[in-house]
Design brief:
- The chain is of the alpha/beta class.
- It has one domain: Rossmann fold (3-Layer(aba) Sandwich), CATH 3.40.50.
- The chain has seven helices and seven strands, in the order αααβαβαββαβαββ.
- Strands 3-2-1-4-5-7-6 form a seven-stranded mixed sheet, with helices on both faces.
- The protein binds S-adenosylmethionine.
């Protein structure tokens, strides 16, 4: 592991670990401004899953940077079946997730390390919400490499959200992204991708489709 990489993990773990408290709401621990702000992002994923898979199909979904794994409950409450797997790099957050929701498949690992902890194409959908938000110095390059890794691990879709550079009230601790720059980088890497930026002023979601070569058509609508 490079020292820049271990600094990065150290900063992220430190930030989230010290926020864990049994009496706080999940969105407060995870640094979302409100439950609506957290769920507004999840709702975009819900719509994408509903468009891409038939209602009786249960895709294997990796929630990368799952935090307290509240996405699992959100999807269940909205009648969206997934075979949910969560991973996070912050052990203290995962311990709290297991305490709040026993029985979920959660793992402590870093998907972005040189040797990924999962084989290629392990999941139909790889999703992450809020994991690129903290300003760590090289967010733009890291996010593009991260998206490419997510596509490698998926058989169908990789979906991630980012804070939008058009945001009016910016925080110094956060990084704000340019959707066009990310799309251009993905295009260069040969990854078909689209952006949704119509649901919140301060956020956008990138949807990457697994490139067709060597990718047998999975079940679904599109
Ligand atoms: C803002 S919270 C979001 C949690 C969850 N996705 C949600 O929306 O409720 C960010 C989470 O991502 C995790 N995280 C940040 N970078 C990560 C990485 N490279 N790999 C895995 N988890 C990461 C943090 O530990 C933290 O739990």
């Amino acid at each position: 592991m490079t020292s820049h990489m271990s600094d990065r993990l150290h900063q992220i773990r430190g930030y989230y670990s010290e926020r864990v408290h049994p009496r706080l709401q999940g969105y407060q621990i995870l640094s979302w401004s409100s439950r609506e702000a957290q769920y507004g992002r999840f709702r975009v994923l819900l719509e994408i899953l509903q468009q891409c898979f038939p209602p009786d199909y249960c895709p294997v979904l990796l929630d990368l940077g799952c935090g307290l794994a509240e996405l699992a409950k959100f999807l269940l409450e909205h009648g969206c079946m997934v075979d949910y797997r969560g991973c996070d790099i912050t052990e203290k957050i995962l311990a709290e997730a297991r305490r709040r929701t026993p029985g979920l498949q959660l793992e402590c690992c870093d998907v972005f390390q040189a040797q990924p902890p999962y084989p290629a194409a392990s999941f139909e959908v790889v999703y992450c919400s809020g994991i690129f938000n903290l300003e760590l110095g090289n967010n733009d390059a890291f996010a593009l490499r991260g998206l490419i890794r997510m596509v490698q691990l998926s058989r169908r879709l990789a979906v991630a959200n980012f804070l939008h550079r058009r945001t009016r009230r910016k925080f110094r601790a956060c990084h704000y992204f340019d959707p066009d720059a990310l799309l251009a980088g993905l295009h260069q890497a040969g990854i078909p991708a689209t952006v949704r930026e119509d649901y919140m002023e301060n956020d956008f979601t990138i949807v990457c489709h697994k490139p067709a070569a060597g990718n047998p058509e999975p079940p679904g609508r599109s």
